[in-house]
Write a structure and sequence with these properties.
Layout lengths: L2 E6 L4 E6 L9 H12 L13 E5 L13 E6 L6 E6 L3 H7 L2 E7 L9 E6 L2 E5 L9 H12 L4 E4 L2 H4 L7 E3 L8 E3 L4 H7 L2 E6 L12 H17 L1 H10 L4 H7 L21 H10 L3 E4 L10 E5 L5 E4 L3 H7 L8 H14 L3 H13 L8 H9 L7 H7 L1 H9 L6 E2 L2 E2 L9 H9 L12 H6 L13 H18 L5 H7 L3 H13 L5 H22 L10 H5 L13 H4 L7
Parallel strand pairs: 1-6, 7-12
Antiparallel strand pairs: 1-2, 3-4, 3-6, 4-5, 7-8, 9-10, 9-12, 10-11, 13-14, 14-15, 16-17
Helix pairs in contact: 1-18, 1-21, 6-20, 10-12, 11-13, 12-15, 16-18, 18-21
């Protein structure tokens, strides 16, 4: 029987119990969103005692099936005010699964002045520990001290100074198999929610434990073998991502004229080749880094890397396309080392890289830092470490807040969350997702770049209207379901192109739990998740009016395609499941 842990941070009360019937059969995003829907008042302040931080491994996490080590973190978003699920890799999730823990719910709020604490979870139970020496430290130094105290094999979930100071753009970081806190539940400011509960870190020690075996071992083994074949044989998951990481997209998206440049003014960056995946791998090999590694055990896509500086010393990892875009073409910065330093700072401060990149764009719009000034952007970001630095406080609170502080009116956000690395005017399927996702602007909620640009799982004109609402809706449903399983979202490339992929996933779930679960049930799972999320947002006060892109996308032609955003709010409502 799997375990649910409730932790009251005010009363210091910890209750472990079997998973209640109401939440039975749910994992990952399905569990986090159901708990938030049922237990969090939609109109509460996100940093109040009424909000809850929910942590859940996926249904298949802890098994031998490839790429199932993801974790969902949920709550009411401090950044957007909507429901939020943020998804991360790292070692933490699989260690929870080894302890047969299905979910953790962190509740209530300590009195003002209460010191930060560390939660420790092992096979003996859960306890609070005091480590005041961690206060104010970055996630790298915090993780090093936690490994020193609890051993090198623990998994760590940690916030940095941004989360401690409840900055709205703050992330929650997770240590990877090398011990670097480089994996992030980045979007939506959930680090601020964790900080409001006065939890600096959660340490999970699964030493001596073993995840529950599948009910039907032979059937699971056969399905897991076929699943690995599907991933290895697909050109994206078997070749492209392992060879160049996600930054292989820089040159692809630039060539397609969809790479947002200088705060979404044009679709091509003349120095894209200097920041693309090919250049990154060249530098990594030259500096004796690692061009190919996984963010969790059992990953066979291996799109992460170890990026070193000019001296050959480790600088960062998990150096993703969206991060390179946010600090690269978006800011006209073409020095990959500067971009890597900004990524490292975000990981250490505990900040979402996408949100922070567009935030610095607001500072550049206001003339605080010149466009293209990498060293200037680095110095600006360092100010977030100081809780008394007012400029740092502005930057740590994200794009919308910073734009208001500086009087900027060119603000690329939906529901106060910044747009990611694809311009919606030249990739309209993902634009529909930005506008209608329950999470605010989020490419991962329905990645129509597959059909618009990469021609995976279909071919839909990125510049026209036909088919783009429908594909966004279908992808939002499928993505929600994937987020419930613990799969890395990148498996979707292979799933979309492989006839028996959904059946294989269904067989994995069926044999793991000894239930009848079909490919049709995958879609039903996604719909139920979205119903929870959209109904929460409705009760929080969000309406169709909030499902629109900023005005400049409707009024400014986007070169080189010279396109406008031309979907009405009414047209886009068809991308949302009915509640």
């Amino acid at each position: 029987m799997s375990t649910l842990i409730r932790i009251n941070t005010k009363k210091k009360k910890i209750v472990s119990s079997d998973l209640p019937d109401d939440y039975a059969g749910l994992g990952g995003r399905a569990l986090t969103s159901r708990v938030v829907r049922r237990e969090v008042p939609p109109t509460c302040h996100p940093l109040s005692a009424q909000n809850k931080l929910v942590i859940a491994p996926g249904l298949l996490t802890g098994t031998t099936a490839a790429n199932t080590g993801r974790l969902s973190v949920g709550g009411k978003s401090p950044l957007t005010g909507t429901i939020k699920e943020s998804n991360a890799g790292g070692s933490f999730s699989q260690k929870l699964a080894k302890l047969d823990i299905t979910g953790i719910i962190i509740e209530d709020k300590p009195e003002p002045g209460t010191p930060f604490q560390v939660l420790v979870i092992d096979k003996l139970g859960t306890r609070f520990d005091q480590m005041p020496e961690l206060d104010g430290l970055g996630t790298y130094e915090t993780s090093a001290k936690l490994f020193e105290k609890y051993g090198s094999k623990v998994g760590i979930m940690v916030i940095g100074p941004a989360g401690e100071n409840t900055r709205l753009a703050s992330s929650i970081q997770f240590t990877d198999p090398k011990g670097n806190p480089s994996r992030a539940a980045g979007r939506g400011g959930l680090g601020a929610l964790m900080g409001s509960k006065k939890i600096k870190a959660i340490v999970v020690d699964a030493e001596g434990s073993k995840a529950p075996e599948p009910v039907d071992k032979e059937a699971f083994k056969a399905a897991a073998k076929r699943w690995a074949e599907i991933l290895v044989k697909h050109p994206v998951t078997g070749q492209g991502l392992p060879s160049f990481g996600t930054s292989i997209l820089i040159n692809v998206i630039n060539e397609a004229g969809t790479l947002p440049t200088k705060n979404f003014r044009e679709g091509r960056f003349d120095k894209a080749a200097e920041i693309g995946g090919e250049k990154m791998v060249e530098l990594i090999n030259k500096r004796k880094g690692v061009a190919k590694e996984g963010c969790h055990a059992g990953c066979i896509i291996q799109c992460s890397q170890k990026y070193c500086d000019e001296k050959g010393e480790y600088l960062t990892s998990g150096f993703e396309y969206e991060t390179v875009w946010a600090f690269g073409s978006n800011l006209l910065i073409s020095n990959l080392d500067d971009i890597a330093q900004l990524d490292r700072l975000c990981d250490d401060l505990g900040l979402d890289t996408i949100e922070t990149g567009t935030t610095i764009a607001m500072a550049m719009e206001a003339g605080i830092v010149p466009w293209g000034d990498g060293p200037g952007a680095i110095e600006l970001l360092k100010r977030v470490y100081d809780p008394k630095d007012y400029l740092g406080a502005i930057i740590g609170n994200g794009t919308s807040f910073t734009a208001e502080a500086f009087g900027v009116d060119r603000v690329p956000v939906v529901k106060k969350q910044s747009l990611p690395a694809y311009d919606p005017r030249a990739a309209k399927g993902v634009g529909v997702t930005y506008a209608t996702s329950p999470m605010g602007a989020d490419h991962t909620a329905g990645y129509a770049i597959c059909q618009n640009i990469l021609k995976v799982g279909g071919d839909i004109d990125p510049l026209g209207k036909e088919g783009n609402v429908e594909v966004s809706k279908n992808l939002q449903i499928a993505t929600a379901a994937v987020d419930a399983t613990g799969f890395c979202l990148f498996v979707a490339f292979a799933v979309l192109d492989t006839d028996d992929a959904l059946d294989t996933i269904a067989k994995l779930i069926s044999s793991r739990y000894g239930i009848e679960f079909t490919a049709d049930d995958i879609g039903k799972t996604g719909i139920e998740i979205l119903k929870d999320e959209f109904s929460f947002n409705r009760d929080a006060g969000f309406t169709a009016v909030h499902d629109q892109l900023p005005d400049f996308f409707l009024n400014e032609f986007f070169p080189p395609h010279n396109q406008l955003w031309d979907f009405s709010v009414e047209e886009m409502q068809k991308a949302k499941v009915e509640i």
